[in-house]
Structures are given as structure tokens and as C-alpha cells.
Amino acid sequence: MPWPTTRRLIGTKIQRLDGVEKATGRAKYAFDIKRPRMLFAKVIRSPHAHATIKSIDTAAAEKVAGYRALYQIKKAGASVFFAGDEILAIAADTEEHLEDCVRAVRIEYTVQPHAVREDDALRSKTNTTGGPGGNNINAAGDFSTDNFENAFNGLAATHQADYGVGVISHQCLESHGLVAEWDAKQENLTVWASTQAVPNTAEGLRVHFKLKPGQVKCITNYMGGGFGSKFGPDIQGIAAAELARTTRQAVKLMLDRAEEVTVGGIRPSAYGNVKIGATKEGQIRAYEVECHGTGGISRGATVSFAILPYVYGPAIPNIKRRHRVARTNIQIARAMRAPNHPQNSILTELAIDDLAARLNINPMTLRLANLPPNDQAEAQANPRTFVGQRATIYRTEIEIIRKMCGWDRAWHAPGQGGKGVVKTGLGMALHTWGGGGRGPNPTRVTINQNGTVVAQSSSQDLGTAQRTVTAIIVAEILGLQPTDITVNLGDSSFGPSTPSGGSTTCPGTSPAILKAAETARDAFLTSLAGRLNVQRNQLSIAPGVVVNMANNQRIPFRQACGMLNVASIQGNGDWPTQKELQGNAKLREEWTTRLSNQGVGGVQIAEVKVDTETGVVKCSRFWAVQDCGLIINKLACESQVAGGVIMGLNYALYEECIYDRATGRQVNPNMEFYKLAGIADMPSIKVHMHDMPERGVIGIGEPPTIATAAAVGNAIFNATGVRVPIAPYTPERVLAALANRRAGNG
Amino acid sequence: MKNFTYYRPTTAEQAVALLEARFGNTEMLAGGTDLLSLQKDYIAQPARVVSLNGIAGLNTITIGQRSVTIGAGVTLAAIAGHVQLSRLFPALASAAGEIGGPQIRNMGTLGGNLCQRNRCWYFRDEHSPCLLRGGNRCSAIEGENKYHAIFTANHRCVIASPSTLATGLIALGASAEILGPQNRRRTVELAKFYRAPAAANEREHTLAANELITSVTIPVRGLTNAAYEVRQKQSSDWPIVQCAVAFSAGRNGEKATGVRIVLSHVAPTPMIAEAAGRAVENRAITAVAATAAGRAAAEGAKPLSQNGYKVRLVEVAVKRALMIAAGLPRYWEA
Ligand SMILES: Cc1cc2nc3c(=O)[nH]c(=O)nc-3n(C[C@H](O)[C@H](O)[C@H](O)COP(=O)(O)OP(=O)(O)OC[C@H]3O[C@@H](n4cnc5c(N)ncnc54)[C@H](O)[C@@H]3O)c2cc1C
């Protein structure tokens, strides 16, 4: 079952099927769901960053007009570990009454010491976060190659400096939450949730309520952003379902903006002191980093630095890492678009440019000299793997982007960004990601007698155009147009599907869709052959028609459907099981290296204009080259890359969570001082998809955001000759770095 | 937000009669772009909200020979898009055009803009201590203060005055017409309209709780004027520092006189940078003179722990505003 070798639709630019629905508001997100007699619910949260609950008094709240029910999450005596920690949830008949109920609840606390800054947490002598141990530090994974002590000896250039990036929030446009409704017998639960994992969300609720499989249904027709923060019902989803059960009414609980920012997810910070050294020919020989970061109160090591030095690691013989995780009294970090990679990219790529400056070489040249080599063993085992050809891919992509942006003409030495106060500079960075798919992702394609075609899977469309991907593949196989296919997604009763995390959705679903479409086509043609009294192999599909080679008749598709003697024909497709894959090398090769695959690289270049009087940085132009194997929808791929760049530009230049040390509260849980770019702040973004169809489908959700911030950081350095160590590169930080140089310190 | 009774009077006099003499229990509603967010965050909890939107005559712009009068209910978008205002008072019109985004400009009004409350994130978080909400300390002085005031001497509350229209209007010598109870009318120069609050019963301006602005009048004196904002981003954002300037003559090498330089986002009130004005008074506005004015404007700044950078931005904003007004090349638009 290979991908078709001549592709009519796959790989072309196809508009989203639901674009009009979304633009007109006809698309209903979980946030838009209105059920009959629906109640509203809200979670009451700790205003303190660390406290124990002395007492909870809901008597007054229960008397407020419109009050319906409450659901206790924490009891008196329990501790809260961040401002926003959940205590109880209340349901009321209107949003307005709900607010009144919430404010009538009296909770008394004994406030405890907290730490919301990494440095405070690292210094604290007590444990304020409730994790293991007597302080707020998780030591995590020190590493050294052998004989590291002499690694920097005799190198022509070394550079040592601090780099980092602060805590940012997912800031999903559609906040977290769901609408929950039980059936009349209180046996079956339906939720309309904003989730990137439809079956997981249903399963989380099923387990909580100890129900049988099939008793919880999760629906997600449209979804307004998750970025790794929406994989289950969460505590607020459980609260909504509990309240719906108590009240026997539908309950809506979606976070408000301040909650979305303070409890909906953060990405861990990362700060490191990096030392890097190279020979005079530009061979990087050693990389040493001492780093830390925080993932909030997370008990585990949510900030991983194991992939440092990023991308170039396999080319650098001597590596040493020391790393601590600071536990702070802020919300638990969640996976965020390419977890750990953007931070590690910053801790690597900025050091590379600083080293290039010391060596007086073009940073593109330095990168080309230190690309991770093609892994020969991998290349032998699987010629289509990324690792087996990564140096080749990066080299090709760098060559493409070099021409796209006119690097040879436009690049100048650091600090030579022009005579005026506004300095122009170019910076680049590389990235890599896995993006391999897996099953189960059962998909069903139904061809109906009336000529309609329906494709169905429980997988979700996060806004990535998964609906359109499904239609493209089915239409390709059936000779139709994507608009001819009705795609039903995002309903857990359609069966299992894998969560949309790790850029796995397209590679995880596409082979199953292909198989379902081919199975349906074969069954369709077999059935038709019976009707036409010809051999099955005398029928084939061409655009819009079924071709009967016996008499050279071309039967329009719809007419052919009308000839069926059954109401519909179905084709199911799914991955082989893990066990089948493990036991069968051929099958494994087909599904994980031909139909789909994993491993991508990408190169990005930013052009910035830095106003050296104000410290304001404007990203003026941006270029991105990205591979992702076989492209299903080029338009959506390009859009995904541009979207990744946009997100990366935000944490490069604007957004960060700011916490008040005294109260431990975030001071900017909004979209005002949690700054996010608008259209006027965007550069022109040029995307080139490096098409490698022979590699099968690979995910692209995350990689294109990884290198962006580092590219911008390097462009600022190139423009001004000054390194701004910490992202986002805000006016005060840029001015401080410039002043530091004027003072002769840098 | 807290439940309230909504009134929609049709005359200004009726509106005033509905307002209490003390702040807290009643609020006026114009475009609501500020008041509604304060209510949603329980910072404002009025029991009565008096809409000004049913009052006839509040949203007219009258261009006269000697003066221009803009009704308090005129929207920011109307100011930004007004051809004659843009020609006469670019300091005002350009600032109006840069505010927030289209939604804010279409709803926000001149009166609401001048009377809007400060944007301090501690003031707007009911769980943080704040002098203006009856607390016993200002959280910003020791806390997160990168957007706060840098002229802080003698101030216990270090909010930064937000209005970017007030600066231009003050530079142009505008006054507000104010209506109080018993039909008492008064006119106040906007230069004297603001004050630095430090307690819960004080506002950022000198209006009584039962007074409202009906209009603002700007004398037409042929002043050269302009404004400049240092902005980190263009979309839906505030300037970090903003400066408006106005003076007589001063273009084509002529000497400038009557120079007025006003800054927002640097002190608890709009700040007239007198030393800066003196630095260019009776001088031709050149890049050198403008730079000197910028330096003079920054004198006396006492920044907080995190906003020292704004001192530099004051220098730059003053310099650039003067250069725009004088028609000198915008060297920063390379
Ligand atoms: C993202 C963002 C960016 C912004 N950027 C800027 C900026 O760059 N520069 C700037 O100046 N502003 C800026 N603003 C603020 C905006 O200008 C104000 O919100 C708006 O002007 C308020 O007008 P309104 O009519 O909506 O006032 P309302 O919200 O209706 O009222 C605000 C206050 O003024 C009082 N009030 C209203 N009218 C009168 C009157 N006639 N007499 C007495 N009191 C009155 C009200 O009682 C209330 O206390 C920004 C706002 C946002 C959200």
C-alpha cells in the first residue's frame, strides 16, 4: 500500500475545508456550545502562592440567587502551592449569579513562604513547593564525556556567556474547559471539550467516574489552540462533569483569560552559562553548560537539557552539562510546542554565533562545518531516515535559504548593521524534531449510493487542517475533490485515536486514511464489477469517473455510486498493532519508513531592525526552510511553518510571565502586558517546503517554532554587535546590553 | 462584575444629578473600554452606572476661528480621522490614531480617555496591596515596575499617567469645560486638571465625583505641534514613553517660542518638562537643540528598580517629537 506515485492533490496547495465556517463564526467551538438549561461553573482558586487552607465557608454562597451546586476539590487543612491552585467549583444559573456566588465564598488561609523566581527557589533553604526533599531543587542529569577537563586546551577560540529565556504561557485563544451533560438516566456523559486528545479526555472522565467504556463521549469539532496544554479533562473538566451530575443539568466551565494564563499551562524557563570552544578552522571541540530552569511546582524534571548542545551535539566530541530544576510556586508546566527544544536552541545557537564572532567567521560557515554527521548505521538500516541523512538535508536547506535571503550580499560582520541609529542584522538557527506517527487511528471511509463520501475518525483538528488532510487523501484515492468529502472528526465514539502531541497527527492518521480510502475504493469497485458483469481489475478510478476498461466507458462517480446494490460501501483502515509491527520487519518498514517516518530538520533566518536609541526591535523579514517528508497539503504546511515562526517571534520579542516576588502572583495574566504581536508587528515570512516525498509523511506541528527565537537573537547580535542574553529581547534588555558595551564590559 | 443599576439620562444636568459627591458608588460610562474592565476585575464596584451616551451634543466637533471644541463623547477614531484636526493638531490626532486597536478607538471617547484610570498591574489586581485601593503600601515601588513612573520624588504611588491625548492637549493649551451639580460650570486648563493620587478616595484628576467633562476647547494659535511614542509593538499596546510638543514658529530655521513639552507614562500625572522647554526656547529647533531638550527633560528622574531605561526613552521621545514638529528628517525611520 504505497502512496500514489503520481499525485493529483497530495502535495498541492489546497484551501482549508472549514475556512469559511471559521471566518464566519459558523464553526462552533467548545466555548460556543449552548445546551438547553445550561448552567455555568467556575473554579475558586487560591490568591496566595503558598498557603494552607484554614477554613472554607460556603454558607453565604449557597444562599445567593441562582446558586445550584458546589464541588469540593480541596478541603480545609490542605495546602495550595500556587496562586490559582483549585479549591472548589460552583455552578449557578447565569454567569452573573455565578460571579456573585464565587465572591460569597469565604476561605481563610495561613500564608506560607513562597518562591516564584528561579534564583529565589535555588537559594531557598526550605521546601515551599511540596515536592520531595528539603528545598526547591531537583538535581537532574549531570553529564560529561570522558576526559572533559582538557577539552578547552589549545583551542583557538572559546566563548563563555549567559543565555536564557523566561517562563511563557500557552495563551490558547480558546481557553481550557468543556461543557458537560449527562443523559436522563445519569449514565452516559457527553462533553464538548477544547482538547488535543479527544479519546483521552473521554477516558480521563470515564476513569474518574468509574464508568464502562463507551459511557463518556467527547466531542471536539473545532479547537482554538492547545500547543501541548490540553491532553485531558483537567481538574476543571472533572468539576464541570461532577456539577452536571449533581444538578442534572448541562454545565459549562471554560477558564477566563486570567485563569487561562495562570493555570492553563506554562513553558519552563531556561538559563545557562555556556562555554564553547573551537579550533581556528572552526571545528567546535567542546561545549559546557551549567543551567537551570523552572517548570513551576512540577515534581519531576520538566525542563530537560539532555539534548544540549542542540542539533550540533553529534559533531561535538566534548560535552559537559550540569543542570538543576528550580521548583517554584507557579502552576505546573505543561508540554509546549516542541518541549525543551526552543530553550535548548537558545542555549546553543546564540553561543555558536558568539563563537563565530570570536573566530571571525561567517556563522553560516561555522554551522556548515559542524553539522551533525549522517549516521551511517542508520542510513544502512533505513535509507529514508532523517538521522541517516541529516547533514545532507541541513546542507541542502542552508543552500536554499542562503539564496532566498541573499545571505552572501546581506550578511555583514556583527555590529556593522549600518551607520544610522537603526541597525539591520541577519541571524540564523537550525532545529530538528521527531514528528513520527503511530496508531491506533482507525479511520472509516463510506461511499454512499447517493454519491456522497464520508470519512470519519475520532482524531481532532486543532486548527492545523487535519480535516482537510483527511479529505485530500480520500479524494486523491477516489478521484474526487476534497470538497466532495464530508469529514467527521473529533468524536470519541468514532473509536480510538492518538493525541495530537509531538507533531504526530498527520503522520499518525494519514497512512490509516490512505488504507481506509483504498479499502473503500476496492470494495466499491468489486461491488460495481459485480453489477457491471466485468472483472474487478477491468475497473479503475480516474478523476471524477470510474473507468470500465472492458468497454472504455467512463462512468461519472456519482452515477457509479447509484449503481450499487447496497446503501453504502465502507472501508476501514488502521495501523497494524505495535506487536504486529515489532514482529514484522517488512510491515514496520512500510508503515514507519515509507508511509510515515520521523525526523526533520529546518533552517530559519531572521532580519531585524534594532533602534539603538530606544532598544525596540522589529523583525522585518523572515525566511524558513523546512522538510517534513511527503507533503499532503502544501498550503497548510506553509501556514503551519509561518504560524510556528509567529509564535517564536512572540517569545523572542514580546511575551513573558512576570511574577511579583512579594505576593507570588503573576502581574500580567492578560493580553495587555503579556504582550503578543499583532499583524502590524509581523515581518514578511517566506516559507520554503523542502519536499522529500520518498520519506513518507512526517509531522510538522512543532519544529517550525523552535529556531525562531534564536535566529532573532542572533540577528540582533549581528545588527548591533551586542549580545542580549535573555529572551524576550525587550527594549530595556536591549538598552541594557548596549549600555553595557558602552561601559566597556562587553 | 457587581450588580448595578443602569441609568441613561438625556441631558448632562440629569447625569450630574445621578452622581454621588464621593467616588465609589457611582460611575459615568462613556465608551466603557476602561470602566468595564475595571468592573469585571472588581476594581470599580459602582452600584449605579450613569451612561453618558444618551446625552445629545456631547459628540460634536466645532472648528472655530479662534478655538476648536471637541465634545467629551467624541470617539478616538473620530478624532484620529478628522481632517482639520489632523492638520491643526497633529499632536492630538496622531496620538488618537495610535491608541490600542480599532475596537478601542471606535468605542473610546475623549472624556473617557482623559479620565481613564491608571494601568498599574497592582492597582488592577484586587489581591495585591495598593494605596489607591485602601492598602497601606504601594506594591510597585519594591515590586515589578518596568512600566511605572520614573519621576517619583515625593510620590507614594508610582503609577504612570496613561493618557496620550492629555499630553498633546496640555501642550496646545487646551481646557476642559466641566459641569457640576446645580448647573455649576467651570473651565479648567488641562495643565491643571491632573493630580497624583495616593489614597482610595482620590482619582488621577481633580474632578469631583459628581462633575463631568462636557467638552475640551483648544485655542487655535497656529502652534507647530507633534507627538512621538516609543512603542515596543504596534498592535494593541501602550507606548512606554510618549511626548507631545507645541511651539510658535520653529520651522525652517526660525526660532521657536512658547515651547511646551509634555510627557505621559513617566510620572503619576502628565508631566510638563519645563527644563526641556527652556532648553529650546528662543532657539531654532535642530537635531542638536532637540537632543539638548531631551537631556533636560530627563533631569530629575528618579527611576525605580526596573525602569531606569525609561530615562533614556524620555530623552529620545522628546528629541524625536521636536524633530517631527520642526519638520526635520526622521532619522530613525531608516
Ligand atoms: C490595549 C489598550 C491600549 C491603549 N492605548 C492607549 C494609548 O496609547 N493612549 C491612551 O491615551 N489610551 C490608551 N488606551 C486607553 C483608552 O484610550 C481608554 O480606554 C479610552 O479612551 C477610555 O474611553 P471610554 O470612553 O471607553 O471611557 P470609559 O471606560 O467609559 O470611562 C473611563 C473613565 O472615565 C470616566 N469618564 C468617562 N467620560 C467622562 C466624562 N465625560 N467626564 C468625566 N469622567 C468621564 C468614567 O467614569 C471612567 O471612570 C488603551 C487601552 C487599551 C485597552
CATH architecture annotation of the domain at 266-436 and 597-742 in chain A: 2-Layer Sandwich
Q: Report the largest inter-chain contact.
A: A-B, 41 and 37 residues
Q: What's the count of strands of chain B?
A: 13
Examine the coordinates and then state which fold CATH places here, giving the name of the CATH topology of the domain at 266-436 and 597-742 in chain A.
Aldehyde Oxidoreductase, domain 4
Give start-end ranges of low-pLDDT stretches of chain B.
none
Low-confidence stretches of chain A: none
> What's the main sheet of chain A like?
7 strands, mixed
* Shape summary of chain B: globular
Query: Helices and strands of chain B: which structural class?
Result: alpha+beta
Main sheet record of chain B: 5 strands, antiparallel
Helicity level of chain A: 25-40%
Helix content of chain B: 25-40%
* Strand fraction of chain A: 15-25%
Average pLDDT of chain B, rounded to a whole number, is 97
Strands of the biggest beta sheet of chain A: in what spatial order? Answer: 3-5-1-14-11-12-13
Number of helices of chain A: 20
Strand segment tally of chain A:
30
The top-level CATH class of the domain at 266-436 and 597-742 in chain A is Alpha Beta
